[in-house]
Amino acid sequence: MTQIIWNGLFVGSFYALVALGYSMVYGIMKLLNFAHGDLYMLGAFIGFALLTSFSGFTATLSLVALLVVLLLSMVGTGLAGVAIERIAYRPLRSAPRLSLLITAVGASFALEYGMRIIAGPNPQVYPVRLGGSSVHVLGARIGVAQLVLIGVAIALMVTLNAMVMRSRQGRAMRAIALDPVAARLMGVDVNRVIAMAFFIGSALAGAAGVMAGSYYGSINFLMGFIIGLKAFTAAVIGGIGSFKGAMLGGVVLGLLESFGTHFLGGQWRDVFAFAFLILFLTVRPTGLLGERVTERV
Amino acid sequence: MLEIDGIDVSYGGVQALHGMSLTVADGEVVALLGNNGAGKTSTLSAVSGLVRPAGGRIVFDGHDITRASPPEIVGLGLVHVPEGRRIFSTLTVQENLQMGGYLVRDPAETRRRIDRVYGLLPRLRERREQQGGTLSGGEQQMLAIGRAIVAGPRLLMLDEPSMGLAPLVVTAVMELIAEINEGGTSVLLVEQNAKAALKIATRGYVVENGRCVLDAPAAELADDSRVVEAYLGGV
Ligand SMILES: Nc1ncnc2c1ncn2[C@@H]1O[C@H](COP(=O)(O)OP(=O)(O)OP(=O)(O)O)[C@@H](O)[C@H]1O
Ligand SMILES: [Mg+2]
């Protein structure tokens, strides 16, 4: 039982990381960034490349090395996200929403099949698996590396939340989401703040990619597709556009899947996840923490 | 202080401004009057950098800002309170004011300016943790003006601040604008409510079809039969 909860929390923490970026970009631009899951894939591959070259000169991969790789992968995916926004989305910012959506699907395919050209169609074995020492808590076996990674995920989310709720740039992000014209009149450089949001959102997806690679042990160029849908589901469960909602949604989805898998079998995992998406969309489209805006005109 | 010299502005195929020219001198309150669609908002948008004029020149304090971006313009001390107030609805009153200080790099200075706004508008202080969107129309207008003050304007442009407000509240808003002006800030005031605007203005322009057709001291405009007929409801 504790093991099921633990697995759910671990998977949930990287769903939450991906969902957070998804929700952030949606909140600020009202864009469903279909390429977001593929940035997670990109993060996993950057991490793969770095780990492979690292293991050339160190025999044992320490946790510290893994964290350094995580950080570098985040920077790499962050920059990729900024590039995608600059090339694919910014020129279309005043175009109809549907054009932007189609472009996002295009960006997703470009990343997937671009990676297929670079890394080939076959799954790659991740050069690090989270084994190592483990501790026993209430009957569950928990890897120390897993504990550290979940700690990193939580730290990333807490930092982001504090940044968005309290810093000057975070406030500007929320202001742009509400009224970009008014934000410009306050002196906000909207392009710069949107680029910043893409960097942060993409970097979080990249971090989740490295975590997933080292947890599942294998990666492939299509791994971002399903996680993109899962992150969307998590964001909807939590209330799309809401930061706390995305985190909560990720963890809830991770737990639901973990229990679903345990009681119904692994083949039901995705069915379970998307059934919840449909359930939420019909019963509570604003999600668990969706904002009910009190507004007077 | 501000010189608009023959600017043209078009939206797609429609030309909204045809050689619009006006000036605001240091310390003045200049009223910009005119009917719906005359081009008042377009004039302010061109000055604050939201739209780019196709021709003409805009000079603020010796800087040519015709092609400058809104952040550059705000940075020079030229701040625009837009039509319809545009409060950030789910941000608190305090956060809205903090947004006004976005370009003020020193947090202590921002805090001082916000305190000054609260001193000027105590009702906002009482509601500092309330979402901006839940304020009444008059309070939202006060917040929009307060937010602009935090940016530290030397010239404040206001677009129809009296819109949709009860007469008593209109008076309060105009008094606030006069008070801000006494503090040394020049004002360019767009209004449909010519009577209220001319009471606090030093000078006024009448805009028609994208250009100024009349320029006179406020007292003279209030007596001008054409202005009275067209904008003061023939009183
Ligand atoms: N974004 C826009 N796109 C197309 N046309 C526009 C746009 N903004 C203004 N216009 C047109 O430009 C002209 C001038 O509009 P503007 O908003 O400047 O007038 P105004 O004097 O502020 O009017 P009001 O008193 O109704 O606010 C109008 O004919 C209007 O239809
Ligand atoms: Mg107007």
Write a structural description.
The complex is a heterodimer of chains A (297) and B (235). The radius of gyration of chain A is 19 Å and the shape is globular. In chain A, a hairpin with a 2-residue loop joins strand 2 and strand 3. Chain A has one domain (15-225). Chain A has eleven helices and four strands. Chain A is 73% helix and 4% strand. With 235 residues, chain B is an alpha/beta fold. In chain B, the strands form two sheets. Chain B has a six-stranded mixed beta sheet with strand order 6-7-8-3-9-10, sandwiched between helices. The complex binds adenosine-5'-triphosphate and magnesium ion (MG). Adenosine-5'-triphosphate binds next to strand 2 and helix 1 of chain B.
Question: In a nutshell, what does this entry contain?
Answer:
Chain A has 11 helices and 4 strands, in the order ααααβββααααβααα. With 297 residues, chain A is mostly helical. Chain A has one domain.
Brief descriptors of the model:
heterodimer; A: about 300 residues; mainly alpha; two-stranded antiparallel sheet; 11 helices; disordered C terminus; B: about 240 residues; alpha/beta; Rossmann fold; six-stranded mixed β-sheet; four-stranded antiparallel β-sheet; 10 helices; about 25% strand; binds adenosine-5'-triphosphate; binds magnesium ion
How many β strands of chain A by DSSP?
A: 4
Question: Can you list the strand order of the major beta sheet of chain B?
Answer: 6-7-8-3-9-10
What structural class should be given to the helix and strand makeup of chain B? alpha/beta
Q: How would you classify the helix and strand content of chain A by structural class?
A: mainly alpha
Number of helices of chain A: 11
- The stretches of 5 or more residues of chain B where confidence is low (pLDDT under 50) are none
Oligomer: heterodimer
Largest sheet of chain B: 6 strands, mixed
| Gap from first CA to last CA of chain B | 34 Å
The CATH superfamily name of the domain at 2-85 and 155-231 in chain B is P-loop containing nucleotide triphosphate hydrolases
Task: Give the SSE order of chain A as H and E letters.
Answer: HHHHEEEHHHHEHHH
The CATH architecture term of the domain at 2-85 and 155-231 in chain B is 3-Layer(aba) Sandwich
Biggest β-sheet of chain A: count, sense, barrel? 2 strands, antiparallel
| Overall outline of chain B | globular
Arithmetic mean of pLDDT of chain B: 91
